[in-house]
Specification:
Blueprint: E1 9-11, H1 18-23, E2 27-31, H2 36-40, H3 42-48, E3 56-62, H4 78-95, E4 100-106, H5 108-112, H6 117-130, E5 134-138, H7 145-160, E6 167-171, E7 186-189, H8 194-202, H9 205-208, H10 214-228, E8 240-245, H11 247-251, H12 257-278
Parallel strand pairs: 2-3, 2-5, 3-4, 5-6
Antiparallel strand pairs: 1-4, 6-8, 7-8
Helix pairs in contact: 4-8, 6-7, 8-10
Bound molecules: zinc ion.
Residues 32-33, 36, 144, 147, 173 line the site of zinc ion.
Length: 280
């Protein structure tokens, strides 16, 4: 498999030949940065962990350039820091028992450029071999521009290939999806193996030791969602992530992506309006 950047990294934790390793994929996550996968798609990782009939593959589109650095990483060059982040992502793939971990090495500006075909072409190649049943992407209301660029390129690739997944989820990183109407929320149970969930975010030491406690915040968000999801009854799950259903956008390429997400916001607005109006 040949990718556009010679720095692209293809890691198979159990050492299987890369094409065969990717072909066994059932759950695929495509993220912008190192550590996004472990924050947004733990549901998929947990579904596949230790199984021989389900396999999780992670794809990181960017190269980790421009990361903040402090402490033991304080005097690292940007190139050295990119290497640290690449290794951290490999560590997560090993801990999480992934089928494979692909890091494509694009710059953020390449990903955000709608006329740059290379990102879509690399993703098409991966999807064509992986033929995933479940796909985890960034959600369309995320506030990080590179996340939006990544989900748009991923939708373009999914629309272009013949294989269609059963379900495509838009997941939480730089914005929660608590605001989605309950009937629209895709509930991603994330309670299984809290030790593995914690380790997966914890291995990204260069990010966490920089002062951002992504490890605690990720677990905290999942606990908050599990607790506040329903006001009645006891919690079935102690950790939940929410996702936006992006399956219709892949199934029907004629749908406008921006209208699709704005429709969800309109329904949220109508819900607030109805409740406030009812008790005035
Ligand atoms: Zn990110």
């Amino acid at each position: 498999m040949k990718f556009h950047h010679s720095t692209a990294d293809f890691f198979v934790p159990d050492g299987l030949e890369p094409q065969a390793a990717l072909a066994r994929t059932t759950h695929l996550c495509i993220s912008a940065h190192q550590d996004d996968i472990e924050i947004m798609a733990y549901h998929g990782i947990a579904e596949c962990f230790g199984r021989k009939d389900r396999w999780f593959t992670g794809v990181v589109v960017t190269n980790g350039a421009g990361s903040p650095r402090s402490g033991i990483y304080g005097d690292y060059t940007d190139e050295e820091m990119q290497k640290v982040r690449l290794i951290e992502q490999r560590k997560a793939a090993y801990v999480g028992d992934y089928a494979c971990q692909i890091q494509l090495g694009f710059t953020s500006s390449e990903v955000k450029n709608a006329r740059e075909r290379a990102v879509v072409e690399d993703l098409e190649q991966i999807i064509a071999v992986a033929q995933p049943e479940y796909v985890y992407l960034h959600n369309l209301a995320d506030k990080h521009d590179t996340h939006i660029g990544t989900v748009l390129r991923a939708i373009a690739a999914l629309r272009a290939v013949e294989h269609k997944p059963k379900k495509v989820y838009g997941c939480e990183v730089w914005r929660d999806l608590d605001w989605l109407s309950d009937s629209e929320k895709q509930v991603l149970a994330s309670s299984a193996r809290p030790n593995i969930a914690a380790a997966l975010v914890g291995v990204f030491d260069s990010q966490v030791s920089g002062g951002k406690r992504y490890d605690l915040a990720t677990a905290g968000r999942r606990l908050a969602h599990a607790t506040y999801f329903a006001s009645h009854g006891t919690d079935q799950e102690s950790a939940i992530n929410f996702a936006m259903d992006l399956t219709p956008l892949v199934a029907d390429p004629s749908l406008s992506i921006s209208e699709y997400v704005l429709g969800a916001i309109d329904r949220f607005r109508a819900d607030v309006q109805k409740r406030v109006g009812a008790f005035q």
